[in-house]
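assembly run, all chains below
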Amino acid sequence: MSVARASRFLDRRALAGLAHMRFSTSHRVEGSYSGRHQSRQQGGAGEFVDFREYSGGEDLRRLDWKVMARTGKAFVRLHQEETNLVCTLAIDGSSSMDFAGNGSSGRGSSTSGSKLEYAQYLSTALAYIIGLGQDQVGLAVLGEKLTEHLPPGGAPQHLSLVIDQIEKVQTQPVTRCSDALGDLFERTNRRGVLLLLSDFLMEDLEETFAALRRFRHRRLEVIALHLVHPDEESLPETGTFRFIGLENEGSLDCTPSEIRGIYQERFSAYLTMVRQMALAAGCDYRRISTSQSYLESLGGFLVERTG
Amino acid sequence: MTFAAPWILALGFIAAAAPVVVHWLTRPRPVKLHLSTLRFVRDAVQQRRAAHRLRDFIILALRTLAILLFAAAFAGPRWGTPALIADSDGDAVRVVMLDVSQSMGAVDGTTTVFQKARSVADKYLQYRPGLRTNLILVGARPAAVFDNVSTNFKALREELAAIDVQPQQIDVQAGLELAARQLAPKDAQDKRRRELIVISDFQRANWGSTTFDSLPEKTKIQLESVASAKPLANLAVVRANCRTLGARRDRLQVEVVVGNYSSAGREGAVEITLGDAVYPISSTFPPQEATLLTQEVPAPAAGWLWGNVRLVDADDALAADDSRPLVFQLRGQPKYAILSQPSDRRQITSSQLLGYGLAPESNDEATSLRLEEVEPSRLDNQSLHDVDLIAIDHCGKLNPDQIGLLAKQIRLGCPVLYVTGEAIDAANLDALAAESQIKLPVRLAPPLAGTNRHDLQLAATDTAVAPFSTFGDSLPSLIDQLSFAGGLSASSANSAGKDERIRAIYQDGTPAIIVARSSSGGSLAILNMDLAKSNIWKTGALVPILDELIQELLATDAHEQVYLSGEPLVARIKTTGAAQTLQIVDETKAADSTTDLGELIDDGDAVLWQWDAAEKPGIYRVENQGETLFAAAVALPAEESDLATVPADVVRDRLAAGYEVAYNASGKQTDTQQDLWKWFTIGAVMCLLLEVVALLAFRT
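ok done. output:
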């Protein structure tokens, strides 16, 4: 598979180790083409899976005449159709994704090591691997609204476009995500997989999961990849800081040593809450620490998916 | 609390801001850091902020307090009001006024007020270079130990140790004037500091109107009140006297006034000892009131009578005023002299009627003992000797000698009853009133020619006024029956309205009965009528009217023979004997006592007893070969019994206004506590330790 222009987030050499792996889903999907994934259609061209007693009106072409001759009863043969996977990569484009740890000199100066960068690496790799599997991949960048949307496609040019767009993702100082997900929902017309890469640091967390629940109602598989920076889990050890919010939240002077315990308790509780809300919404939840290499995270994720 | 070096304390206050400044200067400069999870930080900060603020406040407060305490310790703290009279160096003149009046003997707990005063005074009589001191003992007659301020502190302290409470009333003003003389600068170059220390209980009765104006300018006045912090309850006999009842003086009434100077009423008993008889009286004494108790007793034989009135089981703060001596001279039935011209005895005369009215006994012999008729031509001292009242009726024209003699008798306390039956009496009265310095309410003059003064009716008279109070409600009907004639006209009407000296008035406006007194106590009564021509003797009203009038006139000479201890005693004793033959006897002491009782001096037909100061209460008699010629009851001044004190602010701000005054109540120790800096240091260290504890507590 060739990609028209190399993205800085696409490291084919590194991904060569994962090339044999495929992004799969246990859910039945609706694809445009035949593929490796179970389709919700049970036509006659796929793999035989079962017999079922014939009921009036069914297509007589699926009637197993031999069985009928032997038993005198009419049975139809059931085949599982296989189709390609339609996967939409939704990337949280809020400013909180810019957080790159305490070593960062500040917002906007560099996104090296930020959660967004991590998401870009991860999503680029996923798109590449999905493309390798002949599946269709789309892109949605979530901001105040749906700032970028590429419907799923399987063509190499499309994949290039997706990877290219991933590289161009820019954050916005927004604190809401549900509206963008609503827009995406309205533009999604096929069953497939919605893979959301976010830090879930948003004000409308409940509305966000309500929106994801709507995807689930449409029988899409929703995978929530919760990106957590290690410097978010614990505050700096010493010193006094003026913490500046990334989403126009103002600033706050404090000595982290005084509040470290309470902060960690609250952040841990928040992570737990996000996980519970994701599971409650029927989402597949996976927390990914950006301290881990994205390749390791991706490998583990794909292995887990493969079962 | 004061400080030896207040500027250090001021520096401390400035330094107290140091923790705040240090906190501000050393607070960590925050490093800017972008954080995606600011909301969790904010939540955590909000949760911790209250605790941290409390911690910061406690730490800062303790740190600031520690600095202030350190500063206070270095500033030399001293507890107590700064003494106005400090033992500082420099030349000074100090006068200590010590109240030695009777009220200082009040018992306050286990000690007396005076003992407290003595210890306070001793503190001010300690030697210090450059200090000259004198001690003034302020009683009825204040006296300084030395003529001038001295450095002989030892002698002053010895005098202080020897002195005790005197049964006297304090003369504050005299004491202050004596102190002012002691404190007065010797010359214009005398710039020594002047200090007056007044140690007293500051009784309201004695200090209420005192002023310190006589003291030199810039005198520092230290008022040391040794009065009890709580009001002391005191019960006292403040007056005891005896008086006769009736014109014939055949009954006695003892009057006792008991003052209850406490906030609660009390039941109590008074025991009156008069001669050999004892009369107990029980009564209730309301708080803050003087209760009058009376006891009627039969009159013994004429002569001096003395005794004592005592509160039984008073159990109060001041025991000295629980008894009071009592002296009374019972003169027996009064003797009268009627000064009148001899008259034709064939018909009843006005002077005869007057005699009957004065001595209405049926026994002629008894009457002759009490009544003596004196012709004006034979009027002299001898004829009026031992006469209690002089009645004048139809005496004719009196010459100046006679007028002078009568006026002298009036001045000596012998009342005169003048019946103005003749026109010449107007001139006699004018001269007598002028000579005896008695101002009559109206000037009586002979009736104008052609004026008939007969069938005169009395105008309506107040029934409660002597000499008509005997008649009560029947007075109007009596007045209707009475018809008067004679008498003098009033040449000048009293323009001031009703005058209480005019006891009865005729319907024509002329006075009928006048009772006038001189400022020295002499009495002159005028019956403006001719008794013989009036029908008053026929109605039987003459005797009761005269009885009541005479009783009032004689009451003036039955004065209480009470002298105040500490005050000068001067008495004129009528006697024919020489002073050398007389002896003064102190009833309460043995006969061989050497106590000064004054001296007896011949004064014409009398002897003058002069005693500079009656030292202590009691009965003192002047006798001649065992016969008592005079007796005096020396009693404690009643003002000393009321132990109520003047409020501190009144003494300080009003009485001693204009001076630098300090008031120390209840003899509190004014010594400033000098070792307070230790406690301040300990407090500062404790603050620092508490700070550490607080830091550890908040950390955990």
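Chain B has 15 helices and 34 strands.

The mean pLDDT of chain B is 84.

not gonna interpret more than that til we talk
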